[in-house]
Model the fold of this input.
Amino acid sequence: MSASTLRDCKAWQAEGLPLSTTSNEACKLYDATLTQYVTWRSDETLGGIAGCVSGMREADPNFVMGHVIGTGLELIGTGSSVLLNQQLASAVKRTVELAQTRDITRREQLHASAIELFSRGCIPKACDLWEEILLEHPTDLLALKFAHDSYFYLGYQVQMRDSVARVLSHWKPHMPLYSYLKGLYSFGLLETHFYDQAEKVAKEGLDLTPGDAWSVHTVAHVHEMKAEVDKGLKFMETTEKNWNGCDMLACHNYWHWALYFIEKGEYEAALGIYDSQVACRCRSSGAMLDIVDACSLLYRLQLEGVSVKDRQRELLQVTQPHTEDHMLLFNDLHLLMTSLGAEEQGSTWRLLESLRKQAEDPGERHQLGLAGDLGLPMCQALLQYQQGNYSQVVELLRPIRYRFTQIGGSDAQRDVFSQLLIHSAMRSERKQHKKLARCLLLERDAARPNSPLTDRLIQRANALCV
Done:
């Protein structure tokens, strides 16, 4: 990123997205922060995102959009709760106060209100405000990206696709960061099962910007969902040099790489990626996306019968501080996988009890509103599996399996819970559950033909039913 190309006050005004500050430095650092967020790549020459946010606040302490993007990015990372982090709560309060007292545009006011709503757990309402911004300002990339990530957390797959589709025609190839819309749109197409179109759009993005890690991510998903394991492995290997420097997403792309090895039953290769990439990046960044990837990868290996307890105990040091955050059910479930795998009863108990207590009075918090009849039963299923009560897992998960989408994440990420149900049904002592396992596997085979993992499970299930 060249400092000379960053947009100043006049440039933002010319694009119809005026920023209410007289500081060109603040405007340029806002651009730098937005660019790093969209490209998933820290620019250490500018001090990374943290350095840019700090610089914005020094250049103009009252710059509302500087506070919006800085505080918003901390919130959107879902690694910290305003209920537990007083500094973050104060930052939200400061953003709202500035928006109320400064002479700013309606667009900026809506941005500040959306951040405040997100901080209170009102994620769908925050999305409504970002969409309101996009109606009048379809090239406001911060609104688009905040909405995109939030729809992902909500499991709103169609909205994630359509939000980008509505603004695409307003973007022109000469506009800064234009190519990255291809990655955003392709991921929405992927999650609504337009796999061929998703791959086409993602590769259009990669033709324009080979280092677009989000477009790489879409293609990795396509190969995963179509069980094109060897194609996926080749794609990751040949493109690695383009995306492994995208420090905010590289861990997740390596997670996808490891999934192909698990699919093939090559567990040592998957562990190699975990040890050399996922675990060390997770420890280094502390980012929630990296943390849940590490939790998920080890749990999938555990389901396959691989001993990973020592690694889960190491990972527990990273997950424990987030035990009572309860920002997203998706996060809670993955943190629980690790405390259970590490046999850390204290963390397990604290997570379940604090979630249960908060679910009794969720208020406006969307995710907590789903905890009672979705999140907690899924947590309980993980606990029962660890205790060997496989029939109980089936009874907990079978009635809600078509609601898994509501915990957020991608189809590929949520597949671990479908695998959990299948493994439990196979291991249950009830004949009906064993029959259910075979039916679930036939269903899986129809949706994803030629999957080596499915084939292994079918062979196992058939042997159990002989």
